[in-house]
Design goal:
The chain has helices spanning 21-32, 39-48, 52-62, 69-83, 98-108, 124-132, 171-185, 187-194, 207-218, 224-230, and strands at residues 10-14, 35-38, 89-92, 116-121, 134-136, 142-144, 198-202. By secondary structure, it is of the alpha/beta class. The longest helix has 15 residues, at 69-83. The two termini are 20 Å apart.
C-alpha cells in the first residue's frame, strides 16, 4: 500500500506444517519488498557454497541430523548482514524453538528487533487433510484428494501419469510432524505472546483470505521500541 513504511521490520511466521507459511511468506515479501528468509532455502544454499558455515551445516545435513541452533543462527546472521539493516524481513520456518528465538533476538540487538510474530492458525484436522491428501505428478502439478482431487483417482489430469504420494505426506508421518511441532515449536507462541508480539491469523480460509488477514495484521505494525516511543 502506498504510504506504508515497511523498511527494516522483521516478522516471524509461526504455525504447524501445512498451514501455508511458505505460500503466504513469499507473497508478503514480494508485495512489500521484504526479503523472504526460509530455513530450507538457507540450508540448501549452505550445501552449495564453500564457506566455513556452509561446510559445517552440510556435515549435519549429510548425516541426517538437525543443524544445531548455533550454526543455524550464524547462517541467519550472515544472511541478514548481506541484506542490509534497512530491508524488511519475513522469516519462514525460523525460529523453530524458543532457544532459537532467544538467539535471534541476541543476533539482532541492538540495531533491530522482531516487530511481530504472526501465528497462522488452523485446526489440526484441516492441516492433516491438507498434508496427507497431497498427490503430485512427476511434472510438478499438485492435487489434494480432499480439496482439489484429480478427475480420475490417482492420475494426473494433464499428463495421465500416476500421481505420487510422498513419504513425508503419508498419514503416520503427518501425525509425527504435527506432534513434533506441538512439542518443539508451539512453545514459541507463549514466548512471543509474553513479549507482546504475537498476532493471530485465521488460516482456515482460502489463500487470498488468509493473506488479507496476514497483511492487515503485520504490515503496519511498528517494532516494540517505536510503539513505546509513540505510545501506540
Amino acid at each position: 500500500m502506498p504510504g506504508v513504511k515497511t523498511a527494516g521490520r522483521i516478522v516471524v511466521l509461526l504455525g504447524a506444517p501445512g498451514v501455508g507459511k511458505g505460500t503466504q511468506g513469499i507473497r508478503l515479501g514480494r508485495e512489500l519488498g521484504w526479503a523472504h528468509v526460509s530455513t530450507g532455502d538457507l540450508l540448501r544454499a549452505a550445501r552449495r557454497d564453500g564457506s566455513v558455515l556452509g561446510l559445517e551445516a552440510r556435515k549435519y545435513m549429510d548425516a541426517g541430523k538437525l543443524v544445531p541452533d548455533g550454526v543455524m543462527v550464524d547462517l541467519v546472521r550472515e544472511h541478514l548482514a548481506g541484506l542490509g539493516s534497512g530491508r524488511g524481513v519475513v522469516f519462514d520456518g525460523f525460529p523453530r524453538t524458543v532457544q532459537q528465538a532467544e538467539a535471534l533476538d541476541r543476533a539482532l540487538a541492538p540495531e533491530r528487533e522482531v516487530s511481530a510474530a504472526a501465528l497462522l492458525d488452523a485446526p489440526e484436522a484441516v492441516l492433516f487433510k491438507r498434508i496427507s491428501g497431497r498427490r503430485s505428478s512427476p511434472g510438478g502439478r499438485v492435487y489434494n484428494v480432499y480439496f482439489d482431487p484429480p478427475r480420475r483417482d490417482g492420475v494426473c489430469d494433464e499428463t495421465g501419469e500416476p500421481l505420487i504420494h510422498r513419504t513425508d505426506d503419508q498419514p503416520d508421518t503427518v501425525h509425527t510432524r504435527l506432534a513434533v511441532y506441538r512439542e518443539a515449536t508451539a512453545p514459541l507462541i507463549g514466548y512471543y505472546e509474553a513479549k507482546g508480539l504475537l498476532v493471530r491469523v485465521d488460516a482456515e480460509g482460502d489463500i487470498d483470505q488468509v493473506y488479507a488477514g496476514l497483511r492487515a495484521a503485520v504490515a503496519d505494525r511498528k517494532p516494540a521500541a517505536d510503539r513505546a516511543a509513540t505510545g501506540s
